[in-house]
Specification:
Rossmann fold, 353 residues, elongated, alpha/beta
Length: 353
């Protein structure tokens, strides 16, 4: 039945399988019928497709929200599996438009369709997938801390999660961001932190950053917003009296960096961001990992699980271990800021990968 279903999916790939409240499309790995709300899948043939006999695979992709970083991770995931499996893999890409409840609806649909694997892009998507199934393998990406996401403080992610989940992390040590602040704004005494209170990944990053900055002698104030409607007013309050603003890899903030910039740029506030795409849309500097690369890492994990028979529960979490210190030249010029040596100037064309 699974083979027949996969064949029907491939023949009907131009039809939407959107879950209630979400948006998306069914994509084959060669990039046909691209989803409107995700990055286009590159058709590559650098290596011959793996010989899996008659077996084909259908993968459900649940992406929390559309923004550059998550789009790049989804693209990296699809590109890797495209290169390895060719037309033997089909993707059903669904976007929850920032709504955690919609993530649950999407993942429940994937389980009902008995997909071979679920890729969950961002922490709420992983949590929704875990709630939906304990049997179908789940590969996450764009998750800062899997122990926090899965509410298991005792988890040793270096040897796997112990359940049907693995994935790639976008985590960078909080001390790295604290070092950026002290390097860029050595006189900083008051630093504000901004994030969405609904995102568990942001909470842990903010708390760790606060601890690092306080150890350096700074006063840190945390400001949270409930949703995008509150951002402008909360940012305005957060920068009052602040020497710098730090925003972790928060998905809601990432989707609304233009609002942040519109408030912070006129006030000439250095904004330190959790990742490069956020920075390019309204910040000064970051320690940047490649979301495209962590998407590819998740794709490699999916391949190992589906084709090579690797146990998902014993698959270690993958990381990008080489964050690069980068700055946004346009924002630096706008606030009259001279960036010290050791920072790479980013351009808009670099953000996709």
């Amino acid at each position: 039945m699974k083979k027949l279903f996969a064949l029907i999916m491939a023949m009907a790939m131009v039809l939407s399988l959107a879950a209630c409240g979400g948006s998306g499309s069914t994509q084959t790995a060669d990039g046909s019928a691209p989803a409107a709300d995700t990055a286009d899948t590159a058709a590559t043939s650098a290596a011959p497709a793996a010989d899996t006999g008659d077996k084909t695979f259908t993968i459900g992709v649940c992406q929390l929200v559309q923004h550059d970083a998550l789009d790049a991770a989804t693209k990296g995931f699809q590109d890797y599996l495209t290169e390895k499996l060719g037309d033997k893999v089909t993707f059903d890409v669904q976007n929850a438009q920032g709504d955690s409840a919609t993530c649950s609806t999407i993942c429940t649909g994937f389980v009902s369709n008995n997909y071979d694997l679920i890729m969950a892009n961002a922490t709420p998507a992983v949590q929704a997938a875990v709630s939906a199934t304990s049997e179908i393998p789940i590969v996450g990406t764009s998750v800062t801390d899997y122990a926090t996401a899965l509410a298991d403080d005792a988890m040793d992610a270096t040897v796997g999660t112990g359940i049907n989940v693995t994935g790639a992390s976008d985590g960078v040590p909080a001390q790295t961001y604290a070092d950026l602040v002290t390097e860029l704004v050595p006189e900083a005494k008051n630093v504000s932190v901004l994030y969405c209170s609904a995102e568990a990944n942001s909470v842990i990053q903010a708390d760790q950053f606060k601890e690092c900055m306080e150890a350096a002698g700074a006063t840190v104030n945390i400001f949270t917003f409930a949703d995008s409607n509150d951002i402008q007013s909360v940012v305005t309050t957060a920068i009052d009296g602040a020497d710098a603003l730090y925003i972790p890899t928060d998905n809601t903030a990432a989707s609304n960096m233009t609002i942040v910039s519109n408030v912070c740029e006129p006030a000439q506030i250095p904004v330190i961001c959790g990742e490069q795409n956020m920075m390019m849309n309204g910040g000064l500097a970051t320690a940047s990992i490649s979301y495209y690369n962590i998407g590819r890492a998740a794709g490699e994990q999916a391949y190992q699980i589906l084709v090579e028979g690797q146990d998902v529960a014993a698959t270690p979490i993958a990381y990008d271990t080489n964050p690069v210190k980068m700055y946004n030249p346009a924002y630096a010029e706008a606030i009259g800021f001279t960036v010290p040596e050791g920072y790479e100037a980013a351009t808009a064309s670099e953000t996709a990968e």
